[in-house]
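During the reporting period the student researcher (J.K.) took over the structure-prediction task from the postdoctoral fellow and processed the backlog of single-chain submissions. One of the processed entries is reproduced below for the supervisory committee.
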Amino acid sequence: MTSEEKVIYSLPGVYDSLEHTGDVYIRARGKNIVELFENSGIALFDTMTDTRRIEGVITKRVVAEGFDLESLLYKWLEELLILYYSENLVCGKISIEEFTIRKTGDELNYTITATARCEEFNPEKHDARVEVKSPTYSLMRILKTESEWFAYFVLDI
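J.K. obtained the following structure tokens:
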């Protein structure tokens, strides 16, 4: 974290939306890598609507794979966004059940398997914030401090 990052909005313990010229710049946090990815997913949906109002009556299984942590984060956010665009679902709770790293020869493969608690987006119930087009690799990084993990990423709006 740097002192020049200006927080625009915060969901305490989950993420901060940082100042950015044209898109949404997120700093997600977690006590461990699993919570970091769960909170990154919540940050995606909370950018679009207030996730605290989502009842989560629909359960969806979400799987994402990557060749490093950043590619895994990108694919993870992309898979969650597909739920919104293909089924009109917003998610308010995400639980990662499996986070694996496999080595095949010299290659690493990271995989997340999760359950997302969702419901259909309803403009009468859910306040529309901004519509996210896609995650990006812009400014993406994952950092670990002694006590916490941080993921920085930009969402194209």
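The committee noted the following: The chain has a mean pLDDT of 95.
J.K. will present the remaining backlog at the next meeting.
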